[in-house]
Amino acid sequence: MNLLDWENNISSHKKTTEQYKRGSELQQEEIENQLIYQKNLKKYPDLSSKTHPLIVLSPYHLPKVATLPKKRKIAYLKHIQQLIKRVVEDNQSGKNTISIHNKQYPPSNMTCFDKERMIALNEMVCGECKGRCCLNGNDNAFLDVETIKRYMKHNPELSSEQVLQNYESMITEKTHLMSCINHAETGCNLARDMRSDMCNNFYCSTLKELNTTFYKLETIPEGAVVISRFLS
User: Fold this and answer.
1) Are β-strands 54-56 and 225-227 bridged in parallel, bridged antiparallel, or unpaired?
2) What confidence score (pLDDT) does residue 131 get?
3) How far apart, in whole angstroms, are the C-alpha atoms of residue 58 and residue 19?
4) What residues are paired with 59 via a beta bridge?
5) Do residues 103 and 202 touch, judged by C-beta distance below 8 A?
6) In Å, how far are 52, 111, 218 from 55, measured between CA atoms?
7) Cα-Cα-Cα-Cα dihedral of 19, 20, 23, 27, to 10°?
8) Which residues contact 117 (CB under 8 A, 6 or more apart)?
9) Which among 68, 77, 129, 187 is placed 20 to 30 Å from 57, CA to CA?
10) Beta strands 187-188 and 174-176: pairing type?
11) CA–CA separation, 203 vs 112, rounded Å?
12) Measured in whole angstroms, how far is the alpha carbon of residue 174 from the centre of its chain?
């Protein structure tokens, strides 16, 4: 066996060992999750598997919270300033090339029998997750020209400078590193009407699965038991 074959064999063995280790960990986590779930069902008589389903959030590494670097804030405000400029130019030209999307969730062809409870449960699950979907927001926070046009249209009394000031005022001193600039310890800094369509209309696979229970009267849950894990 030559050196290259030996190195490839070691590398393959290491990868297989790591996969086996993670597979064993996942099996152990599944067992632990069920034990925790059953323990809660016994502890709280009002809970049942039908009214309070188990929701297990995929583990991920939650970046630590630290002081926001000045260069990130500058890059963010420059991005918004450019978006505002494009919206103003489009409005002044009269071409109206920037469209505003009004997406609905659930889709209009699907009936949600208790949207208020669905939204409340979604917010609870999102709160426990603490922002996995925010990790790719970087210094633009998924904001685009459609977002800014929507915000300016709904707030016609605001000047371009005031729009920029409003977004700047939402920036906090501390934020999660290596995540969206608006990803603070308490959640998203931005008011919902200032967030992008991406943020307002994104539903992870966990939420989509949960929300299917609201399309039938007999399966609407009263609540949920949520288990979340974070990688060290």
Assistant:
1) parallel
2) 92
3) 17
4) none
5) no
6) 9, 22, 19
7) -170
8) 214, 220, 222
9) 68
10) unpaired
11) 15
12) 19
* 72-93 residue pLDDT tens: 999 999 999 999 999 999 999 9
Q: Return the HEC string of the chain.
A: CCHHHHHHHHHHHHHHHHHHHHHHHHHHHHHHHHHHHHHHHHHCCCCCCCCCCEEECCCECCCCEEECCHHHHHHHHHHHHHHHHHHHHHHHHCCCCCCCCCCCCCCCCCCCCCHHHHHHHHHHHHHHHCCHHHCCCCCCCCCCHHHHHHHHHHCCCCCHHHHHHHHHHCCCCEEECCCCCCEECCEECCCHHHCCHHHHHCCCHHHHHHHHHHHCHHHCCCCCEEECCECC
Written as six digits, the tokens of 96 are 């109206």
Tokens of 9: 């064999």
Which residue do the tokens 């696979």 mark? Answer: 205
**What is d(CA 150, CA 87) in angstroms, rounded to the nearest whole number?**
10
Alpha-carbon dihedral sign for residues 103, 108, 109, 115 = positive
Residue 182, burial from CB neighbour count under 10 angstroms (0-12, 13-18, 19+): buried
Residues of the chain with pLDDT > 90, as a percent, come to: 59
Q: Report angle CA 107, 112, 114 to the nearest 5 degrees.
A: 145
Q: Is the pTM of this model over 0.85?
A: no
* Domain coordinates in residue numbering, the chain: 1-43, 44-227
Single-letter code of the amino acid located at 32 = E
